[in-house]
């Protein structure tokens, strides 16, 4: 692949490449829109599979951008059969393994076409890459082209710093786990005192990819290799804001490469005077917007929103326990249940649950989450603690009940509940009585009132950070000027 020099007078051209998962695509597309507003040509790279899902959920013309914002697709390497459900997420382990081994070649071919101007886009050659932090093979492409690359981790700073400890855990013999009993015998309660900027945490509070007994575990090794390579990038971007995580951001500032805290991204987008890409949605599932009308009839802060994200799964029994916890709370709720939420089965609740909740509960398969969280009737959020959900909830002033399932969700949960004062944790062994009790505490109790006050304070600070003179606005400008527009 040959290096290219931008033609004088042409706009800078950023190729934005997310990890092909819903939450990562959503965050990357928001960052791409912000860069487009700052004068960049954008090429947004989807896998062929996800691009088809986008078009199916959003409509055939939904991704029609402007002359300087285009989508390109590359294969993900996974086999596609005729009976593949286009609405179903792919097997993450297989997907990550294909990305690890097969992504670089088609990506370089795409860059060559863009630089040769054989794609019909009529833009300048590629001048920078903005890649998901876990798509580190793109670093090789940037090195070959001699252009800057920013790695965008769709994580909190604590999630990023925690992930950087995977190799340390291996060196110390703490991971992989010796056997399955380590998950339940108190081993995970070991205090971890060496992580810069993260005090009073336990092993269980670190991102959970290390929770495997297999030294060849694909997900663990994929994540560990990715964070190990970040110092080869020109910069790292984390989806957060300075006031939320000052200690860990300060610690990261002394480690290469430079780290830019830019978030909440949606609040930055809200501040654009004109957004020609506003019509361009983010969801791989069709959103059911009728729920917003239902919320309009509810009292302020009265409804519990429940959504376990785009990846997390549970057992049939866990679904039933959550269901009866909601039913027995006697409070109104809006519950998103994906078709694949329950492992290997359809998500089915007993008829008695439907009878008990039919007057005060709504169940749907997907929804416009940020609109829901910003609705005045929403008083709390029962969440898996994915980072998109967490930062969207904080920036909406909504306190949380946290049930982490995987990866850095454990870290997000710990900080939400213990450092940011905006959440209560639900035990991994879900019991309906505990769910009911915590829902009542969140929505009606004294702890819930204090958490609401804290969540509203984080909302205020998030809004300040994205204002004209806020830290995230300044960090975005610095990323553009110091990194993405830099000549090699």
TrEMBL record:
Keyword Glycosyltransferase listed: yes
A Pfam family this chain is assigned to: UDPGT
InterPro entries: UDP_glucos_trans, UDP_glycos_trans_CS
Molecular functions (GO terms): quercetin 3-O-glucosyltransferase activity; quercetin 7-O-glucosyltransferase activity
UniProtKB keywords: Glycosyltransferase, Transferase
EC class (word): transferase
Enzyme Commission (EC) number: 2.4.1.-
Family: Belongs to the UDP-glycosyltransferase family.
PANTHER family, sorted: GLUCOSYL/GLUCURONOSYL TRANSFERASES (PTHR11926), GLYCOSYLTRANSFERASE (PTHR11926:SF1516)
Full protein name: Glycosyltransferase
Protein's organism: Pyrus ussuriensis x Pyrus communis
